[in-house]
């Protein structure tokens, strides 16, 4: 799945929202990973079958019948399916949207058995003589008669008991007929709605990953159960039907006295069920003429009409060509469709040949969208297309290895973007959007290893929980480190051999290590100190990462498990005792040195001993997944280097010094004032990545202190630091009439404006209010540049009242551009007026006002506002059972909700409230937010301690700096 939730990465970076007493941040995105779905547990009451098990899922099972296991037995292997689905885009007499279907699955018997166990969830089967299915033998096989059939709700099975045994090596065909609900639950085969010139339109679409194909038709719904799918879709003559493969035929027919189209598709390649897609819609498309295969972009007619699909179309062909070269394997399919859906839970989904997206992740309006929107579109496309090979052609055997699939796509997506947008230096951005983000989570004692044992991941909710920041971003970070120390050509060679060996099959992560090892062995001039397997085991089988300490006076180099809260206890034992094999790229006095491997806890390196003005900088370009600490002397020399000639260090290393220092200080390894000192040179810094690193870390200070006396001096200090940047951009843009040329300059212009307005830099608010007023006076003509809209809207609403808010709401409802709607939706959370915020909170639970897919992130935005935080917390507590029951099934991302609301928690009272919340809802539970709740408690505890220990020091340091500034 695509990893971005609904806010653009760039927009999200420290999206400082100006609320209440000026500056409040709203970023949330460092945590706003959607991914995790709420627990999808069967409701025993729904059971339509006979003899089904009605035990609540929390009760441990004692009975161990084959259908009590969440994993399929290995007796039957599917070969192909023929699936016909007929979604009704109008409600039936009872007001329900349904689909009907027929399915035949052809399977082979591998082990003698008298049971057929196949996944099915929430389907009503047509029964004949009480049986849910028909069975026929193929070839010379005769099928035993069916004795009894029943549904098991808890494990989501249809079970068929036969009167005799199926014979090993023989093939059989199982046929079923069924009806399902085409619900608006964003799972399985579901419906999405939108307005088209005042007319409501319905789309039937699907999301199968991870365990929802079984909700569309009965199937062996595990990634290793690959098969060929012959798909037929029945639909209204006025609509289009799409699926994974090319259309073969479409003919008119009359069914149930209704004229319909019957569209059949070519048999698919051998593939996993979670990658299937079925769509019926009245969309328009654009087609690429140049490619060897068919490339199309689909969206609402209006969006295609206003050319919002062009950018996606233009980059898709080149990105696919790039991957063909990089993987050294041709694109495995004959077409590539990509479609933007009005309602979609994840950011995007890599269905093979028919990739589905949120509208904001695929559509880009050349006039109205921002640079951030553009980057998001190309990033998500690049991520999903990377999966066409890695994930789809070669698929991990089971969900415990999800990290490899998602981490891989999250790493190579940067290579794909770099190929189509070579001027962006996009490969640097992995530091911000993956590494720094996951460092924060993986430094908690409650983190977990990347890789899990197969037997630890069984139930759908356990599978959902795998879609988290660790899998995506730590996966990306360790694979990048691997590619760095193997070198890119060797990495690519091993990869290509892996993909070619296992095409159309399944693997586990060790298979990739084996092929990379072969590539190493075939490269005589490359040497690594241990095998790929042994080096990587330490990074994937134990949680966390090391802080490497270099003592430049002695040459001592050592490592230690880095924990943000130095008092926290690690309960999870590690076979490697929390030590790693650490590849250290480093430089001395600006000169790159030979890579150094730290292979034990403590070592010495004569080269790293320096004297006089000499300095050492390790982990250049943050190529390794670890933090670095130095002796005080070297820290001082690095700080003075920043203050005198910061450009000697690369942008990434400047960013890294700041981020390491702040985090080492959080962990009490270096003094807090040392971290604060890394921000002094920002007076001269003009580059985006160091600024974002600093702002993110200062964000923490803002969150901890924006309700205390420290906030005044913090604002004054920020004002002093941001003024030169504000002036720089004012000049560069001829008094804000132009937009900078450089990609990251455009982002940093947004930072400058946002912070400056937040802390009251002269002229900033006036500028913004003028723009907004002009727009309100003439809504048909928006004078604000798309890049700046997010910031301007938020500030204007923060400084404005109900009139501004209602205007924004009207614009939100009227816009036909999804990214514009998304900006306005975030901005409406910036108001400082409580009743407006409370009304907005109520709107989030009304799908006619805020789409279900956007509910969580909207509540999160409100909670990020210092005025909105207590309101959102009360709201969520008061409505928890409603939220859990109504939205808990997939469309609501609970982990984000919890982590978003608690991000500012730093008092004993808040900790008590949080624990009470956990206690009060023990019965109901927290689904996939369980882990997030544990983390929230750990973080709050750490925050309380941090504030107690640092408040006075921070106040003192900032006061000193700002008083000095006043006298300047
Ligand atoms: C699906 O189509 C293939 C190719 O035409 C065919 O061999 C296979 O038997 C079909 N499967 C089913 C279940 O009808
Ligand atoms: C099963 O066979 C019976 C009798 O031939 C037939 O009426 C029924 O429609 C079949 N059901 C399915 C699901 O194919
Ligand atoms: C399935 O059957 C149940 C029980 O009869 C009924 O409440 C539900 O509406 C049915 N669903 C569909 C999609 O027909
Ligand atoms: Zn993905």
Automatic annotation (TrEMBL):
The chain crosses the membrane at residues 12-33. It comes from the Eukaryota. Coiled coil: none annotated. Zn(2+) binds at residues 383, 387, 406. Its main location: membrane. It is a single-pass type II membrane protein. Gene3D superfamilies: 1.25.50.20, 2.60.40.1910, Neutral Protease Domain 2, tricorn interacting facor f3 domain. The record marks 472 as: Transition state stabilizer. Binds 1 zinc ion per subunit. It holds the Pfam family Peptidase_M1. Belongs to the peptidase M1 family. This is Aminopeptidase.
């Amino acid at each position: 799945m695509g990893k971005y939730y609904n806010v653009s990465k760039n927009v999200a970076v420290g999206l400082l929202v100006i609320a209440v007493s000026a500056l409040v941040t709203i970023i949330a995105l460092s945590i706003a990973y959607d991914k995790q779905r709420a627990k999808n547990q069967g409701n025993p009451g729904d059971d339509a079958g006979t003899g089904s098990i009605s035990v609540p899922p929390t009760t441990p099972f004692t009975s161990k019948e084959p259908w009590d296991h969440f994993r399929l037995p290995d007796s039957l292997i599917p070969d192909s399916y023929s699936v016909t689905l007929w979604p009704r885009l109008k409600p039936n007499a009872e007001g329900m949207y349904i689909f009907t279907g027929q399915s035949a699955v052809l399977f082979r018997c591998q082990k003698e058995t008298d049971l057929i166990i196949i996944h099915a969830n929430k389907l009503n089967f047509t029964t004949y003589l009480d049986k849910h299915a028909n069975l026929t033998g193929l070839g010379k096989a005769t099928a035993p008669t069916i004795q009894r059939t029943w549904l098991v709700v808890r494990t989501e099975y249809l079970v068929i008991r036969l009167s005799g045994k199926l014979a090993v090596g023989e093939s059989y065909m199982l046929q079923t007929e069924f009806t399902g609900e085409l619900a608006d639950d964003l799972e399985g085969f579901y419906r999405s709605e939108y307005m088209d010139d005042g007319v409501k339109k319905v789309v039937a679409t699907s999301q199968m990953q991870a365990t929802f194909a079984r909700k569309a038709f009965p199937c062996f719904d595990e990634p290793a159960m690959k098969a060929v799918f012959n798909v037929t879709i029945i639909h209204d003559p006025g609509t289009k039907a799409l699926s994974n493969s090319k259309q073969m035929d479409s003919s008119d027919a009359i069914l149930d006295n209704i004229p319909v189209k019957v569209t059949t598709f070519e048999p698919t390649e051998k593939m996993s069920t979670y990658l299937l897609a079925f769509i019926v819609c009245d969309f328009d498309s654009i087609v690429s003429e140049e490619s060897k295969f068919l490339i199309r972009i689909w969206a609402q007619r209006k969006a295609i009409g206003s050319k919002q699909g062009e950018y996606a179309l233009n980059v898709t062909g080149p990105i696919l060509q790039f991957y063909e070269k990089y993987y050294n394997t041709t694109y495995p399919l004959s077409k590539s469709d990509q479609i933007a859906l009005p309602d979609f839970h994840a950011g995007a989904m890599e269905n093979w040949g028919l990739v589905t997206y949120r509208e904001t992740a695929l559509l880009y309006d050349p006039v109205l969208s921002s640079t951030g929107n553009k980057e998001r579109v190309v990033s998500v496309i690049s991520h999903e297309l990377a999966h066409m090979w890695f994930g789809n052609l070669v698929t991990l055997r089971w969900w415990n290895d999800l990290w490899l699939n998602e981490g891989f796509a999250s790493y190579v997506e940067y290579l794909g973007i770099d190929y189509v947008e070579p001027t962006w230096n996009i490969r640097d951005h992995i530091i911000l959007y993956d590494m720094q983000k996951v460092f924060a989570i993986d430094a908690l004692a409650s983190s977990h290893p990347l890789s899990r044992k197969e037997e630890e991941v069984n139930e759908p909710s356990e599978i959902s929980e795998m879609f988290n920041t660790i899998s995506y971003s730590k996966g990306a970070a360790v694979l990048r480190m691997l590619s760095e120390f193997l070198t890119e050509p060797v990495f690519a060679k091993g990869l290509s051999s892996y993909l070619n060996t296992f095409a159309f099959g399944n693997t586990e992560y060790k298979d990739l290590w084996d092929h990379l090892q072969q590539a190493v062995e075939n490269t005589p001039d490359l040497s690594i100190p241990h095998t790929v397997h042994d080096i990587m085991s330490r990074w994937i089988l134990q949680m966390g990462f090391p802080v490497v300490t270099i003592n430049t006076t002695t040459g001592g180099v050592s490592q230690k498990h880095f924990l943000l809260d130095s008092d926290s206890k690690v309960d999870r034992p590690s076979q490697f005792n929390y030590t790693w094999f650490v590849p250290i790229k480093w430089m001395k006095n600006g000169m790159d040195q030979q890579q150094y491997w730290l292979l034990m806890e403590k070592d010495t390196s004569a080269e790293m001993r320096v004297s006089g003005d000499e300095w050492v900088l390790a982990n250049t370009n943050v190529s390794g997944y670890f933090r670095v600490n130095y002796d005080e002397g070297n820290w001082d020399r690095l700080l003075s280097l920043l203050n005198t000639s910061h450009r000697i260090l690369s942008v990434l290393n400047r960013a890294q010094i700041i981020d390491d220092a702040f985090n080492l200080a959080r962990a009490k390894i270096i003094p807090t004032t040392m971290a604060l000192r890394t921000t002094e040179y920002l007076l001269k810094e003009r580059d985006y990545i160091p600024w974002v690193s600093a702002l993110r870390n200062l964000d923490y200070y803002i969150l901890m202190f924006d309700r205390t006396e420290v906030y005044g001096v913090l604002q004054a200090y920020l004002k002093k630091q941001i003024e030169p940047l504000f002036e720089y951009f004012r000049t560069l843009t001829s008094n804000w009439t132009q937009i900078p040329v450089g990609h990251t300059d455009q982002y940093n212009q947004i930072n400058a404006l946002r912070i400056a307005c937040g802390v009251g830099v002269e002229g900033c608010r006036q500028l913004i209010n003028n723009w907004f007023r002009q727009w309100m006076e003439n809504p048909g003509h928006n004078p604000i540049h798309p890049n700046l809209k997010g910031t301007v809207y938020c500030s204007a609403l923060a400084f404005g009242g109900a009139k501004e808010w209602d205007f924004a709401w009207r614009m939100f409802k009227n816009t036909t551009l999804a990214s514009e709607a998304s900006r306005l939706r975030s901005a409406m959370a910036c108001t400082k007026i409580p009743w407006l915020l409370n009304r907005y909170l109520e709107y989030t639970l009304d799908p006619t006002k805020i789409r279900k897919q956007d509910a969580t992130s909207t509540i999160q935005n409100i909670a990020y506002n210092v005025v909105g935080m207590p309101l959102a917390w009360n709201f969520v507590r008061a409505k928890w059972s409603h939220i859990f029951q109504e939205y808990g099934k997939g469309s609501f991302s609970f982990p984000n909700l919890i982590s978003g609301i608690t991000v500012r928690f730093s008092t004993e009272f808040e900790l008590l409230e949080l624990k009470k919340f956990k206690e009060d809802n023990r019965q109901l539970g927290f689904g996939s937010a369980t882990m997030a709740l544990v983390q929230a408690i750990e973080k709050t505890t750490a925050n309380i301690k941090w504030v107690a220990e640092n408040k006075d020091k921070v106040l003192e340091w900032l006061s000193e700096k700002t008083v000095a500034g006043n006298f300047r």
